[in-house]
């Protein structure tokens, strides 16, 4: 996007001075892999995240998903989303199992972090699993507090729901400070199977604040991967 020229403004081609005009096609995103790939190659770009939020707000399927959740988020889930304490894992899973629902077959969500298991291996989650409709938000979670730096790899996971059994809670986006995360939280007990691991970038950047020296930032190159995962 670009700002309009003075000629476009004075000629009436645009009606608002601060309007943005489409200028150059950056990428075509036709599927979840395209979205994940674009995100890893353009860390920090929020445009796709904004488009996803607009689509969700206008999606009948998303509204139906939200309608299956209680009108008020249970306190234990709200506290967990805002403060994330491991001591709450059991209570959080109990709450999700009480008020959540299984997600639709084929639903795509994203998770960022590090997955140490081999292709084909199935792992049953021992704690709640946080996912997002947005690959950008999933990546931000993987990078936050130097987690990708410590792991030595950045994994952006495309999670496809198959044979759903674990309940999940879909958090609302409006009226909450964490709504921008577009979070769907699975209860413990979700079955997670890695189907494919694809290298996107050999020498991506990773950063971590250096507590020993205020203001210093550690950085190093790490590989970026897309992981295709089944979750049930």
How much strand content do the residues show?
Answer: 25-35%
- How much is the radius of gyration in Å? 20 Å
Sketch the topology as an H/E string, one letter per element.
Answer: HHHHHHEEEHHEEEEE
Unreliable parts? none
Distance between the termini: 40 Å
How many E strands?
Answer: 8
User: What value does the average pLDDT take?
Assistant: 92
Oligomer: single chain
Largest sheet, if any? Answer: 5 strands, mixed
Any idea what the shape is? globular
Tally of helical segments = 8
Portion of residues within helices: 25-40%
What class would the helix/strand composition place it in?
alpha+beta
What layout of secondary structure does this protein have?
Layout: H1 6-10, H2 32-41, H3 47-57, H4 60-67, H5 75-83, H6 89-99, E1 108-113, E2 122-124, E3 129-132, H7 135-143, H8 147-151, E4 154-161, E5 168-170, E6 183-186, E7 191-209, E8 217-231
Parallel strand pairs: 4-8
Antiparallel strand pairs: 1-4, 2-7, 3-6, 5-6, 7-8
């Amino acid at each position: 996007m670009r700002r309009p020229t003075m000629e476009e403004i004075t000629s009436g081609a645009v009606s608002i001075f601060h309007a943005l005009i489409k200028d150059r096609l950056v990428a075509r995103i036709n599927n979840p892999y395209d979205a994940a790939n674009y995100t890893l190659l353009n860390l920090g770009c929020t445009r796709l995240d904004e488009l996803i939020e607009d689509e969700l707000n206008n999606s009948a399927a998303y509204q139906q998903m939200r309608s299956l959740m209680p009108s008020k988020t249970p306190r234990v889930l709200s506290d967990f989303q805002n403060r994330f304490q491991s001591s709450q894992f059991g209570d959080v899973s109990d709450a999700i199992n009480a008020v959540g629902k299984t997600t639709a077959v084929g639903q795509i969500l994203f998770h960022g972090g590090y997955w140490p298991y081999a292709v084909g291996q199935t792992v049953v989650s021992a704690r709640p699993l946080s996912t997002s409709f947005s690959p950008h938000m999933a990546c931000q979670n993987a990078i936050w507090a130097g987690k990708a730096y410590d792991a030595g790899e950045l994994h952006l996971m495309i999670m496809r729901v198959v044979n759903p059994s674990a309940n999940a809670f879909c958090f609302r986006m409006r009226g909450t400070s964490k709504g921008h995360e577009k979070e769907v939280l699975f209860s413990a007990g979700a079955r997670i199977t890695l189907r494919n691991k694809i290298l996107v970038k050999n020498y991506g950047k990773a950063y971590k604040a250096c507590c020993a020296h205020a203001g210093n930032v550690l950085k190093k190159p790490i590989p970026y991967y897309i992981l295709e995962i089944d979750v049930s």
